């Protein structure tokens, strides 16, 4: 293609609202153009990359036996009411009424519609397993859209939904999708990691996020460099950092700690390591009646070591031997509740001598501590030399309730954990019968009886991948696209295309030769000066560049430079094609 | 592809709400599946055809120098307010508010957004002409969605928008798009006709509809079989059917015609040809004040011959020598208005002796009539032997205000007109500066001064093409797809695939051979009985079918049948591949 037949638009400055490098570079390089908050035009340059991503995703899913369809952007509320999501989902679900005053949503996902298709179309176990996918526009009315198309409101997503006859078959489907996703991200040319993720109310261990590695990523990824272990921070298991509880060696002592309301302050004051302190966190749960009014609230005390952080996902799953627990809907306790139960204000709380009975949940590490420091439930005072059993009862529950930290032992016993940042671009998830039961979607099994489908769902954020790829691959000059998804693979930059016959001839010939080989090439015939022209293509991030100029051509030379090469290399004009083809691993 | 890896779903019965054959067949063959009123899932089979249509459209537009982008489905109201369309468009424009109570629309087209892009991005005449297009989901909240995806609410449309520096350049762009559209519909394999269409308020002669010919089409297409003339019925020019007005040969006479309120009834009663009668139609226009309240209404009398029909588009364009006219917003007069102006009720109206002064607009043919029959403005009476000049004044305006009929002379003088039915699937339209002026979209021209873009817009109803193709091409067994857009080009039907080694081997081999040649083939390995299997593929409309069975294979024979062939032909197994390739015009 020639640049004059295309549309190239680069900017020197990034827009004021661009906070992250991918948003800045995508806008400056003309990949996207803002239309409104969280709404972006996919400009011609960006659309080329989006299509390449889509085609890789489509190809691998088709090979994995998935079948493509398209479900409407606009969906009737009735189906969403069947699963309760029409009411349950927050303001992110965009709801509206049509001219006849009927309720609709703009799809953020399509579980309801695809389950409706399945319950009508998949009538027999003979038709199973079946995995439908679409690459379709999605909308989430984010309260505060940001980061360009990384967290926009309208975006393009690939969503797949599988239907199996039993758990075993669903497991095989899950594994197949996991493998397909791994191939997809390999082909995209991105460094990624598949990490185990929380399954929430579904349970089980079948949820993985595919994270593109980037220092700027929103998510913390936990992995063991010497084993296969990898999980997101919400899920990664934290073992006890103390092998077993030591014997008490100190008497419990009340110490004055005025104005020292954090573990760090107290440790410093007492000249003790932070790891000798225990942090007290007070959570609360509410019981409601049919009308949604709160009828009773319960307060819970969670203990983690002073240098650790509470993991709220893990906390939400805590269940005591008596069956009570936080379930999903907990909150932090109010100051009033804290004073009522602990007799003091936050900053000096602890598990010893509670004003009111409160269930105590200790992190595994805390449960093994001896001679520790905690609040005295008395403003301006802490206790030191505290020991379980002697100074306070054993905790009601010992559980993994903290985030892992770098250097923690890997839960598989195969090394120590490292943490890196990632951007979630894909998710595979075993749904079980959650949706098929809610919508009574059944098939006739081999015994002739109706049975609910075992389902899975599998998402890939198509447009998000562009942002993630740029966060991972950029330098001070611009984007560094992987070859597979660059908008163009090769750019030919002729210096003086409109005034030198020789330059024009050389550029046109290589352009034609590359097109004949199926290479995605662009010839920049805009007539820009060399500096501006090179800067544009480095900003845009095309992997391979060939420059023809009069001076070089007189010596029979062209210049080749890979996007990541420090310098251009002189290549005989007669060798340029072969040089490129060998770089592109295409037979000459 | 093997059928077991795909999704095939056929129905014996069409849904109750399917009124037309394309809706019935598309549903029965599993191309679409209804989700709600005017909302359809594109099922895997249908999506294959949609993608093939899209790819042909995309290929030809790229060759024509258009550049693809994608504009959001959800668009801010602000831009639509700039052109006034946010208020002016009726309930078909779906409007909604987001969580922050801001107004948005779901795009039915994208003139506003693309003009917003152009006014920011196209700054210099050097960047022109530029033609942006998208293939994107559209939504129109039709009051009464029907005909499946032919008149759905959500649909897929290709919309292109061109930006030129002057009228001459815009004309070249228009011609280029007209040519690209002609190539597109040729490649789609459809019989079509490009017809001149009304340009409404824009004026000029640059509006063409691309109509797929089908007896069941909604639109009447007028064309001259012996010349290039073609126009839609709204636009097609009707010349006078009487060369010049004859002399009066009868005296005017009032005849009693009780209960005969139509021209047909009166002609029969009087024993005269219908073409001797004149039909009186009373239209009205309203003047409104700033608040939109009607302050004055005017009544107009339109006269067409008894066997002709008023053309409302032409009527709306009528302008009298004094500058008055109907403009766009006319209506039929109320009975009260008719009585006030004519002194009688509808059915006996005429232009002779009006109770109140009314401007009279006569069709060209009517103006040349002599000794004609019309209502007497007296209930139960008509006049016969009426003559212009003698019995009533000459009309205030003589104009083309009727629909042409079969056999009318072609306005180019090259023959007579024929009429056929069509389905509009494409439209090319010169917009001029309508949008660029409303949105103040300018570029710097060669003289350094800002100038408004000359624009054009160009639509193709991607999903509508499926319906139109089926209306044109079907038989009692199902759809007859053109090869270019059939969901599969070849189907291999093995009889006993799961029990005969020979059948399986022959089918698998041909399948592999065709795939290697790049042929879009499906092997039906579902294990259906031959009758059901053949019926499915005839319903689906695959152009070429090969059948392998044990009996034939013993004699070294396979069966080939084209979708439109009356019978299957025996072909030696060794020749099947070449037989198919020669039919598909692929080198062996």
Explain this structure to me?
Chains A, B: Keywords: Aminoacyl-tRNA synthetase, ATP-binding, Cytoplasm, Ligase, Nucleotide-binding, Protein biosynthesis. Two copies of one chain form a homodimer. By secondary structure, chain A is an alpha+beta fold. Chain A folds into three domains: 45-237 and 419-470, BirA Bifunctional Protein, domain 2; 253-399, YbaK/aminoacyl-tRNA synthetase-associated domain (YbaK protein); 488-583, Anticodon-binding domain (Rossmann fold). Chain A contains 16 helices and 31 strands. In chain A, strands 3, 7, 8, 9, 10, 11, 12, 21 and 24 form a nine-stranded mixed beta sheet that branches. A five-stranded mixed beta sheet of chain A has the order 16-14-15-17-20. The longest helix of chain A is centred in the N-terminal third of the chain and has 22 residues, at 167-188. In chain A, 46% of the residues are buried. The model of chain A has no long low-confidence stretch (mean pLDDT 95). Chains A and B meet through β1, β2, α2, β3 and β4 of A and β1, β2, α2, β3 and β4 of B.
Summary keywords:
homodimer, 588 residues, alpha+beta, BirA Bifunctional Protein, domain 2, YbaK protein, Rossmann fold, nine-stranded mixed β-sheet, five-stranded mixed β-sheet, 16 helices
Spell out the blueprint of helices and strands.
The structure is a homodimer of 588-residue chains.
Chain A: H1 21-28, E1 32-36, E2 39-42, H2 44-63, E3 67-68, E4 74-76, H3 77-82, H4 85-88, E5 95-97, E6 103-106, H5 111-121, E7 130-139, E8 154-164, H6 167-188, E9 192-196, E10 207-213, E11 219-223, E12 230-232, E13 253-256, H7 263-270, E14 278-288, E15 294-305, H8 312-316, E16 330-332, H9 335-342, E17 359-363, H10 364-367, E18 372-375, E19 381-386, E20 397-399, E21 418-432, H11 434-438, E22 442-444, E23 450-452, E24 454-461, H12 462-472, E25 474-475, E26 478-479, E27 490-494, H13 501-516, E28 521-523, H14 530-540, E29 544-548, H15 550-554, E30 557-562, E31 569-572, H16 576-583
Parallel strand pairs in A: 3-7, 15-17, 17-20, 27-28, 27-29
Antiparallel strand pairs in A: 1-2, 4-6, 5-6, 7-8, 8-24, 9-10, 10-21, 11-12, 11-21, 13-19, 14-15, 14-16, 18-19, 21-24, 22-23, 25-26, 29-30, 30-31
Helix pairs in contact in A: 1-12, 2-6, 2-12
């Amino acid at each position: 293609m020639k640049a004059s037949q295309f549309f190239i638009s680069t900017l020197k400055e990034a827009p004021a609202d661009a906070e992250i490098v991918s948003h800045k570079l995508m806008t400056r390089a003309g990949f996207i153009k803002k239309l409104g908050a969280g709404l972006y035009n996919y400009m011609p340059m960006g659309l080329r990359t989006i299509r390449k991503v889509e085609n890789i995703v489509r190809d691998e899913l088709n090979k994995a036996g998935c079948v493509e369809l398209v479900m409407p952007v606009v969906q009737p509320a009735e189906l969403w009411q069947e699963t309760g999501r029409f009411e349950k989902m927050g303001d992110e679900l965009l709801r509206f009424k049509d001219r006849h005053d009927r309720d609709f949503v703009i799809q953020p996902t399509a579980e309801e519609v695809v389950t409706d298709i399945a319950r009508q179309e998949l009538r027999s176990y003979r038709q199973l397993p079946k995995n439908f996918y679409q690459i379709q526009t999605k909308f989430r009315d984010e309260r505060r859209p940001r980061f360009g198309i990384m967290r926009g409101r309208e975006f393009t997503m690939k969503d797949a939904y599988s239907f199996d006859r039993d758990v075993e078959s669903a497991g095989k489907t899950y594994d197949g999708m996991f493998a397909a996703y791994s191939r997809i991200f390999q082909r995209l040319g991105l460094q990624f990691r598949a990490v185990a993720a929380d399954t929430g109310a579904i349970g089980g261990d079948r949820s993985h996020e595919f994270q593109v590695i980037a220092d700027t990523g929103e998510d913390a990824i936990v992995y063991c460099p010497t084993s296969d272990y990898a999980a997101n921070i919400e899920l990664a298991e934290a073992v006890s950092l103390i092998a077993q509880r030591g014997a008490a060696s100190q008497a419990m002592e009340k110490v004055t700690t005025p104005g020292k309301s954090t573990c760090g302050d107290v440790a410093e004051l007492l000249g003790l390591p932070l790891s000798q302190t225990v942090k007290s966190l007070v959570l609360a749960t509410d019981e409601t009646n049919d009308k949604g009014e709160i009828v009773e609230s319960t307060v819970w005390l969670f203990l983690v070591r002073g240098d650790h952080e509470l993991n709220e996902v893990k906390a939400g799953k805590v269940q005591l031997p008596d069956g009570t627990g936080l379930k999903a809907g907990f909150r932090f306790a109010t100051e009033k509740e804290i004073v009522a139960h602990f007799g003091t204000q936050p900053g000096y709380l602890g598990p010893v001598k509670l004003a009111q009975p409160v269930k105590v949940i200790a992190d595994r590490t805390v449960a093994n501590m001896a001679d520790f420091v905690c609040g005295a439930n008395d403003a301006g005072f802490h206790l030191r030399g505290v020991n379980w059993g002697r100074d306070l009862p054993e905790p009601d529950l010992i559980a993994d309730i903290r985030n892992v930290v770098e250097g923690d032992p890997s839960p598989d016993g195969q090394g120590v954990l490292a943490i890196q940042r990632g951007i979630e671009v894909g998710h595979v998830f075993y749904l079980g019968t959650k949706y098929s039961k809610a919508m009574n979607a059944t098939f006739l099994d081999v015994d002739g009886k109706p049975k609910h489908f075992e389902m899975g769902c599998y998402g890939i954020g198509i447009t998000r991948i562009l942002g993630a790829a740029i966060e991972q691959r950029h330098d001070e000059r611009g984007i560094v696209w992987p070859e597979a998804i660059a908008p163009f693979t090769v750019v030919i930059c002729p210096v003086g295309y409109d005034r030198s016959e020789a330059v024009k001839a050389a550029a046109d010939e290589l352009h034609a030769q590359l097109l004949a080989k199926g290479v995605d090439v662009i010839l920049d015939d805009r007539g820009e000066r060399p500096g501006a022209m090179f800067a544009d293509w480095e900003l845009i991030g095309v992997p391979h560049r060939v420059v023809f100029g009069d001076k070089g051509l007189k010596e029979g030379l062209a210049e080749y430079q890979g996007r990541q090469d420090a310098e251009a290399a002189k290549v005989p004009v007669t060798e340029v094609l072969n040089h490129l083809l060998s770089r592109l691993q295409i037979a000459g």
